[in-house]
Design brief:
Blueprint: H1 4-19, H2 26-29, E1 44-48, E2 53-56, E3 72-76, H3 78-91, H4 113-127, H5 129-132, E4 140-144, H6 150-163, E5 168-172, H7 173-182, H8 187-196, E6 199-203, H9 214-229, E7 234-238, H10 242-248, H11 250-259, E8 264-267, H12 271-275
Parallel strand pairs: 4-7, 4-8, 5-6, 6-7
Antiparallel strand pairs: 1-2, 1-3
Helix pairs in contact: 4-6, 8-9, 9-11, 10-11
Bound molecules: zinc ion.
């Protein structure tokens, strides 16, 4: 078996070879720019246990004889996790503008009680996600009037989950189907991704006055049914209430509703709020500063 020292030397040699780093050449190579200076883009650093200091692979100190006397371990550089998360965001279909949407920027003061309820349910869902994700009630559904903040809250959940390293895919009803129709060659592959991604966010389910097409119903039922049978989490928003959804496709509506047990809110005004002239609509999706 290789000793740690041998492994370090081996990797250091590869890193040096790949990047043209040698003791003589280091002054030259230090002028190179790296995405990550800690690991010089090798993805690995050496942690000196006595100093609690990270040394990049290829660092000239690694050639010193004393270096190998020190207790050290190799570890993945912090940039690897950041890259992984950045990749998750890129593959989620969530646009740059939406990536900073979070719970902090969601206004509840002076708004109808259902808005606070939806915020509380979404926040609780996010905070307990790890413990519920493999249960039968692992989905989140927010229904009701446009402009009430459904997309903002579900987006906040998505962004939070991706920061924790959990893959999410965003599927806005209208644009999503437009995109599928434009790429019929790899329809199967795209539908398969929607079936299997860790978390699927279907935004504005059945949006529009028109009845969904057979193509839309067939493809989405495929996805929802697969996720239902395999207990995979879904985040769903719709302007329609659950009766209207079930009137269009009872099987799909029932599956989404059942999986969202404990995490579903229908946004609407109470009679008192309506009498008081309160509004549910509010333009909320402002990216946070932080
Ligand atoms: Zn790095």
């Amino acid at each position: 078996m290789q000793s740690i020292r041998e492994r370090v030397e081996h990797i250091a040699a590869i890193a040096a070879g790949a990047q043209g780093v040698s003791q003589e050449a280091e002054s030259e190579s230090s002028k190179q720019t790296y995405d990550c200076h800690r690991c010089k883009d090798t993805g690995v650093v050496v942690l000196l246990l006595d100093l609690d200091e990270e040394v990049p692979i290829g660092d000239r100190r690694m050639w010193d004889e004393q270096f190998h006397q020190r207790a050290h371990v190799m570890k993945s550089c912090g940039c690897q996790e950041r890259k992984r998360i950045e990749k998750l965001f890129r593959s989620s279909n969530i646009t740059e503008n939406f990536r900073k949407v979070g719970f902090k920027g969601f206004v509840i003061d002076g708004r109808p009680s259902c808005v606070r309820e939806a915020r509380d349910v979404a926040l609780r869902y996010f905070q307990t996600f790890d413990s519920i994700r493999n249960t039968e009630h692992n989905s989140l559904t927010l229904l009701g009037q446009p402009g009430s903040g459904k997309t903002h809250l579900l987006m906040a959940v998505c962004n939070g989950l991706m920061r924790k390293g959990i893959p999410v895919q965003y599927f806005p009803w209208v644009e999503g189907f437009g995109d599928l129709k434009n790429h019929l060659d790899d329809l199967e592959e795209r539908i398969d991704t929607m079936k299997r991604v860790d978390v699927l966010f279907i935004d504005d389910l059945f949006k529009g006055r028109r009845h969904p097409t057979d193509f839309q119903l067939e493809q989405l039922f495929n996805v929802v049914n697969f996720r239902y049978l395999n207990c995979l989490p879904m985040l769903v928003s719709s302007e329609r209430d659950i009766d209207a959804i079930c009137a269009i496709d009872e099987g799909m509506g029932r599956r989404i509703w059942e999986r969202s047990y404990g995490h579903r809110v229908i946004m609407g005004l109470s009679p008192e709020e309506r009498d008081a002239g309160m509004e549910l609509n509010f333009s909320l999706c402002q990216p946070e500063k932080s």
